[in-house]
Each structure stands twice: as structure tokens, then as C-alpha cells.
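Look over this today:
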Amino acid sequence: MRIGLTGGIGSGKSTVASWLAAFGACVVDSDAISRSLTAAGGAALPALAAVFGEDIVGVDGALDRARMRELIFADPAARRRLESVLHPMIGAETERQAAAAAKHPVVFDVPLLAESSHWRARVDRILVVDCSESTQVERVARRPGWTEAMARSVIGQQATRTFRRSIADAVIFNDGPDLAELETMVEGLYRHWTGRTPGL
């Protein structure tokens, strides 16, 4: 069973992914892969420096994420250049990790799954974690280095909530603080889709 997991920024997708991992799924986290590629010594850094200049690498030897965000917000074409470097590398590592999952269900945690049409053919089910835009903005603005304006900018660049829900096999609405109820919903869906008892 291959499950695509997605949701807009601040939706709570990462929380859902952590539960699916605890239930026994192999979670392939594209964001984590991206961070490893852009950490100090990461495989993507030489190519990114060639595209954006050496000042895109911070004093710690890793990608300067704040600087990268500034470039993307100022120039939409910068996002496309960034993706042209990172996406092929992320794709290769994603498949490597999925192949190592053996018989476990595989969950592909992909923030921009809805924006990439090829994912529908690569997974058996798509799970969307959804919440209101106001909740997204509130959650993201609490993150270090983020503002409400930055949160709204990212939301505006992502697929709409309507489109994201339209490609889903299941939608979990996460607008409230009741995490226990949310976990129960995720567990029920996991049982239904995989036929497995969580933890086994």
C-alpha cells in the first residue's frame, strides 16, 4: 500500500505523518530529504551555489533558508530554479527509501503533492489534511522567523484547498485542538486502507 499524504502549510500534516509512522508505516518525508540535501555537506549545495551564487550558503555551511525564502518571495522564477535542482534529487532518494520499506505500507509525505500530477499514478490512495486558511496563517506565523504576510504568501503559491480536496481519497479536517480525536480518525483510516493493526 502506497499512500500520498499532503496538506497546505500549517495544516498539521507532519503530526499525521508521525502517527502513521507510529502505526507501522514507512514514512518517506520529502521535506526531510530536502533538508538533508541542503544541510552542511549536502549533495545539492554545489548546484544551488552555481545557480544562486555562493552567498546562498550560510556560515554554517548549510543552505541559508532565510535568504532562500527572500529570493523566492521576490522572484517567482527563483522557486522554479530551486525546484529544478532539488526535485530530481528528492525523487531519487524518495524511491530509494520506498524500496527499502519491504512489506510495510509506505506513506509519501509531500507538501506539494497536489501541484505534481505524477503522484496520482505513483500511489494507491491520497490523504489530505485540511484546515481553514485563518488557522494556517495563525499556526505558521508562530514559527520562528515567520510573519503573517509570509504565511499568506506561501499559501497563495500552493494549490488551493478546493483543488487539494478534489484529488483526495480521504480528507481529515484539522481545525481544532482535539488531537486525540484526530489521532483516532487517522488510526481508523490506516486500518481501513492497509488492513493492518497499528503497531504490527
